[in-house]
């Protein structure tokens, strides 16, 4: 199998996995799901680092360094913000916690 | 490090991403899921530094510096943002990801072009197509997300921006993108790909400008899917399987969310995106002179005090007024009186998918009180009082009764079936869709004018005094 075809096979299989995994998500979690998925595509950082390490002229290097900055913001910011959101999702509390009322 | 080990670690990271998305589908496992995803991303990033023909990597100091800059911007932004500003931050993060993917594709294209010129072997068609796709869609996602951000941050108008001949400008822009893609395809040079990027940037702007505030959830999820697919395509160009898997997963989740949102609005995706072009600016007609029943906070408190079941229907107005904590205070007070309280959440309430859930979660509302539309609708006939806070279109019966109105066919929360309806509104202005809401004139309806937070505080006070 040529490498191009192998890559396309992976793509097709990933489509099915993606739909299967995400299709049952409850609407309660739509925002964190989106934000979490958002963070995952920040993995383009890997690609940005690879091209930056291959760059040998100023234009290429500049563009790839900008890509690294953007991708890092995407990845790290995405995971942090998703965690912040999820931290707040709590199941039914036993008798209303007093600590919240102090706020 | 051997290629096999490198690929194996990539596989581990890909599995982490799958587990992350799987975890995110349920509240109990979501937080752990997200951490697994973060771990996968961290492993994937670290391993790049230990694999290659040349170690340490060329340009290593600059690469590390760029990562530090990204961290210095991303982490504080994610930590400090107010939860009500979450939609715009998610839009922004999504946009920068798309921008990064486009830049990676451009650099790789230039690189491959140089190599091809040296070896005399042209770049394969598949790689060229994947590159063009990434540049066009990634840049569109970047500028589109920026415009979405500006709209949500209210740095520009949230209303659809429609300009004369907009449709022709967009069509012309698309043709130009196609022509330029042909140019990039045939001549591997720098100018062509930079022009393509510029045209795509323009397209992103033109594409999002006409979208109104209420349709933003759809646009955000669509752009999310776009970015995912561009990451997958750049994975193809770079022959990096991890990027293909990660990008495709995101593409799938974005597509599912987009479809859910479009269904929840009862409209086709196409209609949502391009509806604004055809919409004749529906001038919000002269305010209806019919009488409405407006009440005081005390009236509302009395109504609530004698209810057995109360449903709270939040909308974007709740987010604007930052009233989520006050709502919970009210709900707690009612629960303490033995009244059954639930929140009825419309899928498109707010400015992003699931916006209301995050907002109420911030106020410590347990997620099992947040009830989805399909589950809560059958319970409205047994509901004594529905409180509609800063929502309008999602409870507008016109969606069922008035064929031809812009929201006709959109599933709504059936609050009109409950015993009493309380509307917390700032004014008589119609909702984003610009349609008069018959429910406001219903004899069962009481209107409480004013800022949602101030009104709720008064109701809570009155309820305590009873």
TrEMBL record, chain A:
It is a multi-pass membrane protein. InterPro entries: NADP_transhyd_a_C (IPR024605). Pfam families: PNTB_4TM. GO terms for biological process: NADPH regeneration. One of its GO terms (molecular function) is NADP binding. Its EC number is 7.1.1.1. Keywords: Cell inner membrane, Cell membrane, Membrane, NAD, NADP, Translocase, Transmembrane, Transmembrane helix. The chain crosses the membrane at residues 6-23, 35-55, 61-82. It is found in: Cell inner membrane. GO terms for cellular component: plasma membrane. It catalyses: NAD(+) + NADPH + H(+)(in) = NADH + NADP(+) + H(+)(out). Residues 8-90 form the NAD(P) transhydrogenase alpha subunit C-terminal domain. This is proton-translocating NAD(P)(+) transhydrogenase. It comes from freshwater metagenome.
């Amino acid at each position: 199998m040529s490498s191009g075809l192998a890559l396309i096979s992976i793509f097709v299989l990933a489509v099915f996995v993606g739909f299967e995994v995400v299709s049952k998500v409850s609407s309660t979690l739509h925002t964190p799901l989106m934000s979490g998925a958002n963070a995952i595509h920040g993995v383009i950082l890997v690609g940005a680092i690879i091209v930056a390490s291959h760059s040998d002229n100023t234009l290429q290097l500049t563009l790839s360094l900008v890509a690294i900055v953007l991708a890092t913001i995407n990845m790290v910011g995405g995971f942090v913000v998703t965690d912040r959101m999820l931290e707040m999702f709590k199941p039914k509390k036993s008798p209303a916690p007093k600590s919240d009322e102090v706020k | 490090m051997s290629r096999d080990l490198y690929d194996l670690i990539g596989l581990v990271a890909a599995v982490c991403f799958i587990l992350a998305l799987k975890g995110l589908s349920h509240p109990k496992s979501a937080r752990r899921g997200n951490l697994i995803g973060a771990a996968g991303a961290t492993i994937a990033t670290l391993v790049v530094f230990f694999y290659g023909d040349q170690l340490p990597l060329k340009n290593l100091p600059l690469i590390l510096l760029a990562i530090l800059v990204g961290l210095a911007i991303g982490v504080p932004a994610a930590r400090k943002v107010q939860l009500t500003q979450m939609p715009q931050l998610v839009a922004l993060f999504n946009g920068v990801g798309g921008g990064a993917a486009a830049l990676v594709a451009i650099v790789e294209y230039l690189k491959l072009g140089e190599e091809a010129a040296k070896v005399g072997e042209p770049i394969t068609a598949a790689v060229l197509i994947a590159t063009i796709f990434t540049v066009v869609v990634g840049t569109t996602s970047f500028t589109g997300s920026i415009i979405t951000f500006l709209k949500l941050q209210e740095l520009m108008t949230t209303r659809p921006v429609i300009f004369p001949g907009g449709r022709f400008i967009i069509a012309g822009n698309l043709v130009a993108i196609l022509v330029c893609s042909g140019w990039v395809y045939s001549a591997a040079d720098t100018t062509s790909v930079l022009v393509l990027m510029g045209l795509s940037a323009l397209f992103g702007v033109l594409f999002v400008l006409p979208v109104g505030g209420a349709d933003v959830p759809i646009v955000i999820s669509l752009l999310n899917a776009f970015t995912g697919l561009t990451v997958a395509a750049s994975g193809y160009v770079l022959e990096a399987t991890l990027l293909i898997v990660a990008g495709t997963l995101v593409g799938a989740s974005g597509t599912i969310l987009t479809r859910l949102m479009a269904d929840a609005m009862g409209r086709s995706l196409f209609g949502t995106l391009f509806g604004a072009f055809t919409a004749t600016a529906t001038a919000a007609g002269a305010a209806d002179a019919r009488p409405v029943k407006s009440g005081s906070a005390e009236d509302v408190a009395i109504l609530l005090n004698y209810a057995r079941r109360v449903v709270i229907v939040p909308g974007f107005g709740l987010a604007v007024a930052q009233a989520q904590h006050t709502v919970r205070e009210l709900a707690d007070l009612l629960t303490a009186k033995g009244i059954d309280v639930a929140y009825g959440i419309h899928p498109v309430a707010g400015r992003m998918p699931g916006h209301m859930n995050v907002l109420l979660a911030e106020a410590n509302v347990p997620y099992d009180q947040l009830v989805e539309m399909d589950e809560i609708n059958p319970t409205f006939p047994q509901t004594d009082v529905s409180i509609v806070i800063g929502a309008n279109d999602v409870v507008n019966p016109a969606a069922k009764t008035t064929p031809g109105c812009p929201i006709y066919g959109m599933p709504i929360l059936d609050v009109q079936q409950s015993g009493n309806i309380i509307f917390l509104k700032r004014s008589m202005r119609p909702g984003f869709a610009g349609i008069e809401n018959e429910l406001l004139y219903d004899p069962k309806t009481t209107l409480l004018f004013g800022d949602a937070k101030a009104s709720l505080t008064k109701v809570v006070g009155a309820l305590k005094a009873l």
